[in-house]
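Give me the 3D structure for Acetylornithine deacetylase.
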Amino acid sequence: MATQLTINTLTKLISFDTTSVHSNLALMAYIQSFLNEYGVESTLDYNQEKTKANLYATIGPIEKPGILLSGHTDTVPVKGQSWSTDPFKLTFLDNKAFGRGTADMKSFIAVALASVPKMLSANLTKPIHFAFSYDEEIGCLGVRSLIEKLKHLDVKPAACIVGEPTKMKLVTSHKGKLAARVTVTGKECHSGMAPHGVNAVNYAARLVNWLENAANDKAQNGPFHTQYDIPYSTIHTGIIQGGTALNIVPNHCQFDFEIRNIADDNPQDLLGHFTDYCQELIGEMTQKASDTDIAIEVLTEYPGLAKANDDAIISYLKNLTDDAEEGQINFGTEGGLFSEHLKLPTVVCGPGSMQQGHKPDEFIYIEQLAKSEAFIERLIDSLSESP
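Predicted structure for Acetylornithine deacetylase (387 residues):
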């Protein structure tokens, strides 16, 4: 059974609506106040508008390399979802705790905070760091500025644990993501004069077809990472809009596509080839109308996470769990950014399951909270000097 302090802390965290479109400052003020009660100093790293912030804190000796616990404070929206309970009031039923963010991923933050008294009472010989971010759900935007600041630490952490929901299994790799928007500008005319126009929808269709062929090539020729259920990078077009009337050759079409790449398959390579094809089509289009164009806007991008080349660290982190198996996940996290930009051995391990995340009536099993508490307690013991 989870401790009352974990339950109380999670109850408070869930009460804040930190959907990515909203500020997270009230939640961060609560976390700072919580830490202050135990004499733990923390710093906030604000966005440009001063409406959101990351939080960083350290418990233990800063002159030694320790373990960084990472979590995001924002959640996906509840709008348009049919909930049986109030999504911002922690509700218990059948050994489950319901609320937005219970699975993804306020439970990990709650357990980390509730473990602060144990961290302080232990004789830590190496520190435990907290790094809590904003805007993870819309492209891992917030944590990037925090990572830039962490680069200047005199002593960097030895490893990072991202507490995304894995049912407390150690995950050593996940795919990255690149999402882009393509805007095709053609030349409109009456459909009876179609050869004199430049049909933006037709050119967009050719681009979508190019992406589909590229996706098929990835499926057939790789590169492959056989540990994934889908062991190659995927490409898909998710949204397309164009045209205003059937009897008008459309001068505008826009579509969004994304690449979900395995860590050793750089999506910029594919984007470069796609851009070359766009330039080829622009050459065709401008022969008919000089003001036609194809524009590509990268909406968001974050790297995949590859297994760290540090067997000792991975073995150490694995020993903190109840499960000897390593795994992979099909969703992205901030882990790739910590690994790529801070060069930290990074894993993903946290309570709950993404099968319950992002859905109405999101929940976490109470036993997952208890497992997470045991994990953090083992971490504390491993970083402490025996009395």
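Residues 200-221 form the longest helix (22 residues). Let me know if you want a second pass.
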